[in-house]
């Protein structure tokens, strides 16, 4: 667009100077009104200045036409070419000599040139842009984006046009669409694989757990040590089943619903999460007043808060504690904070805790799959946000994440 404006300005400048040279006449010596010599000299000087300016503008215009990447061309009221860039000749496959004799119908036969004289003046207000095809000398067709407007040159109206080759851009667009389709196919296959694998693995796990329970219930010879081992088998089977569930949730975490439901305050959402978590007695979920003004959709933010608050309680090292949640409006996004007064996370692990299957304590001490924070990062990342752990000293940890700000 900037190239279009610059060329039009140069054309107007050259055209204005051309008009001066075309219509200026020296004073008639026989005229009744005498003309002073100094006035005549000033007129000649003005003409020379105009011609000099025209020469400079014409040189600039020619340099631009020789180096322009877009196919610039100027047509008269009949659609004949009166000015063109070298790139436009190359774009159509014509020589410079051939190009100078062409009419618009040579490369755009569907355009009617009969009413050019009437339609060109209507294009003076602004540059119009449209996508179309032009025919090259060899008969092939080229996809282009054409901008056009009228210009005044020497008192006459001409049509300025600039054609931009869209072949490469359209090729990239087609390749991107194919890559996107391939990615969607791979994701669909991955989802199906995760579902089938999870279902097929869960069945033998249930059988192992049930078999261990049958032995405990029906075999009177089972002693205390054997019972302990069988219960350990049941616990491991249950942990594996939970891990499969978490892997399935993680695999599907990026599939954000197209219709996420009505807006609600983040404070109301936190209250619902606290109920579903069945927070043990001795622990408090503190929702800051800033959450009242944060309007959000329930899904998938509910899962994020569920994981963060649940983790804070699960990894707390005391029988009582608190989890505080608040929000900061940063303009286009909210930044939510979830802080607890638990043992905290050592600085060396504040990045790795967001990896899959990562836990800071043995699973025999704290039951969990290590997928909670990995799921949070995936969901937040799919919505263009970030998450992390705020620097702090002493007990407790404060996690934060960005979330899109919904319009009321």
- The unreliable regions are 8-40
What is the end-to-end distance?
36 Å
CATH class of the largest domain: Alpha Beta
Count of discrete domains: 3
Name of the CATH architecture of the largest domain: 2-Layer Sandwich
Total beta strands = 12
The strand line-up of the biggest sheet is 2-1-5-4-3
Mean pLDDT: 78
Helical coverage, percent range: 40-55%
Shape: elongated
Name of the CATH superfamily of the largest domain: PAS domain
Order of helical and strand elements = HHEEHHHEEEHHEHEEHEEHEE
- Note the main sheet: 5 strands, antiparallel
Oligomeric form: single chain
User: CATH topology of the largest domain, what is it called?
Assistant: Beta-Lactamase
**Structural class by secondary-structure content:** alpha+beta
CA-atom Rg in angstroms: 38 Å
What fraction of residues sit in β-strands?
15-25%
Tally of individual helices: 10
Write the layout of secondary structure elements.
Layout: H1 2-23, H2 37-67, E1 71-75, E2 81-84, H3 86-92, H4 96-99, H5 116-119, E3 128-135, E4 141-153, E5 156-165, H6 167-218, H7 224-251, E6 263-265, H8 266-277, E7 283-287, E8 295-297, H9 301-314, E9 321-329, E10 333-340, H10 372-382, E11 387-389, E12 397-404
Parallel strand pairs: 7-9
Antiparallel strand pairs: 1-2, 1-5, 3-4, 4-5, 6-8, 9-10, 10-12, 11-12
Concise account of the structure shown:
The protein has helices at residues 2-23, 37-67, 86-92, 96-99, 116-119, 167-218, 224-251, 266-277, 301-314, 372-382, and strands at 71-75, 81-84, 128-135, 141-153, 156-165, 263-265, 283-287, 295-297, 321-329, 333-340, 387-389, 397-404. It has 408 residues and is an alpha+beta fold. The longest helix is centred in the middle third of the chain and has 52 residues, at 167-218.
